[in-house]
Backbone:
């Protein structure tokens, strides 16, 4: 990751750490539970969550496994994570500040390596996936969870513009077909997958990025979104709802393993 | 809360992928190969190459 983009990510997530962490760990326990169920944790599992943010998945998994580790680029997120760890009195979790493109862990150290909502911030996600694979045991698993970009080129472009206005550290939401190609190139097979349409309030979504209706970027994003409603030109399935707009993010979860040699 | 042994067992230099060891003052983690010392801030190892200093020996 370039230093410039690294700084953009750190700036964005330092600014929004508190709002973001409340959302990620407290407001959506159902989503975290869904992920833990999907991962079927085992008592001997060593987990690494890459770009762990305030540590929601690490802390939800830790009581069910041997040890859970979180790595993130933004120190403020990790301070939040450690605070939550203290509140929950979880002993078997640890945090490191580091980059997904050069993960500071030994080869094959983990049974399960996960990453959620991170790939859309990363200029070269294939490098991060490669590093995740390096630190995964030969018979280990990789878990990816992220928003999916529209398959149509026109929708993909407008979708990305709105996302980047809201959050300058956003690079692009990968399409489902892009994920499939990336998995294939690294010889990974999908063990299970799950998709969901996550409906959310535009105003809340903006607020989580630190933007209110007074902000220029809020106004710019809203104008583009409103203009996209007819024909769903940005792929957000947007619908006006009083002062607000309801939008939808398509998300995909993938559990992956190395493909067996023929 | 100090840096846990479980973490030290598997942590490596992000550049050389060599094991790192705790410095005598307990404030950093040193790579055995490139001699970079990564700081530990609030008990959290900062394993970013730009944040490391290189030890003369």
Residues:
């Amino acid at each position: 990751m370039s230093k410039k983009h690294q700084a953009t990510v750190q700036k964005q997530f330092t600014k929004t750490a508190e709002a973001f962490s409340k959302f990620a760990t407290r407001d959506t326990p159902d989503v975290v539970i869904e992920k833990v169920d999907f991962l079927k944790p085992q008592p001997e599992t060593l987990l690494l969550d890459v770009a762990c943010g305030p540590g929601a998945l690490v802390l939800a998994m830790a009581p069910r496994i041997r040890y859970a580790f979180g790595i993130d680029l933004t120190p403020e997120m990790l301070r939040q994570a450690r605070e939550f760890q203290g509140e929950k009195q979880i002993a078997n979790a640890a945090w490191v500040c580091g980059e997904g493109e050069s993960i500071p862990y030994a080869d094959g150290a983990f049974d399960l390596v996960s990453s959620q909502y991170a790939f859309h911030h990363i200029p070269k996600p294939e490098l991060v996936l490669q590093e995740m694979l390096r630190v995964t045991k030969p018979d280990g698993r990789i878990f990816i969870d992220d928003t999916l970009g529209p398959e149509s080129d026109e929708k993909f472009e407008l979708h990305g513009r709105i996302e980047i206005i809201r959050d300058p550290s956003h690079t692009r939401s990968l399409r489902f077909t892009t994920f499939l190609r990336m998995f294939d190139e690294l010889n990974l097979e999908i063990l299970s997958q799950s998709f969901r349409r996550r409906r959310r309030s535009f105003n809340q979504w903006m607020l989580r990025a630190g933007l209110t209706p007074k902000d220029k970027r809020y106004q710019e994003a809203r104008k583009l979104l409103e203009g996209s409603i007819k024909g769903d030109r940005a792929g957000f399935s947007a619908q006006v709802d009083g002062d607000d707009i309801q939008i939808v993010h398509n998300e995909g979860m993938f559990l992956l393993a190395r493909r067996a040699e023929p | 809360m100090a840096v846990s042994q479980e973490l030290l067992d598997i942590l490596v230099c992000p550049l050389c992928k060599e094991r790192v060891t705790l410095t005598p003052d307990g404030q950093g983690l040193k790579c055995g190969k490139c001699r970079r010392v990564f700081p530990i801030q609030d008990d959290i190892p900062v394993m970013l190459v730009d944040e490391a200093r290189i030890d003369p020996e």
Q: What stands out?
A: The domain at 5-54 of chain B is CATH 2.20.25.10 (N-terminal domain of TfIIb). The helical segments of chain B are 5-10.
